[in-house]
Design brief:
This protein is an all-alpha fold and 123 residues long. The chain contains five helices and no strands. The chain binds heme C.
Length: 123
């Protein structure tokens, strides 16, 4: 009986992780590398999108762009998160891949000024 309970608990704790991996796989299936700047694949594969959104716009966690922090500060947060963000060690995410992620975020265009969006003008 205890073994069954243990298996159930393990299964329940791992379910969100497995589902997230499946979601990454689905999105990756749609990525055509030539359509995306360098680093988008890494950003999706490493799961940053799950908390920071596909465009770094934020969601469950902070937005990463507009403005993007300097690389050294960015890398420090990823290697030694200051609070609850998961740690990404160099074994999981090499410096080269981290730089690609940074360059993906650098290439995201700035958000337009709300005054330039006709739908928001109220006319
Ligand atoms: C499970 C959710 C989660 C994932 C996945 C995640 N982060 Fe975070 N991130 C957070 C949270 C929460 C914070 C707030 C600070 C903290 O908890 O350390 C944060 C903060 C940050 C910050 C600092 C933002 C600021 O304005 O202070 C950066 C940069 C960052 N994350 C980059 C990344 C990158 C790059 C990845 C993928 C390699 C990633 N994060 C994956 C949750 C996540």
């Amino acid at each position: 009986m205890n073994i069954i309970k243990t298996i159930l608990v393990i299964a329940i704790f791992h379910l969100p992780q497995v589902m997230a991996q499946d979601a990454s796989r689905d999105f990756l299936g749609e990525i055509n590398d030539s359509d995306h700047p360098d680093g988008y694949r890494e950003y999706v594969e490493l799961g940053c999108w799950q908390c920071h959104g596909f465009q770094g716009q934020g969601g469950r966690a902070a937005k990463l762009v507009d403005p993007l922090m300097p690389y050294d500060v960015f890398a420090m947060q990823v290697r030694k998160p200051r609070n609850i963000m998961p740690v990404y060690s160099p074994n999981v995410l090499s410096d080269a891949r981290l730089k690609k992620i940074y360059s993906y975020l650098q290439n995201i265009p700035e958000s337009p000024d709300p005054d330039d969006i006709p739908l928001l003008s109220g006319d």
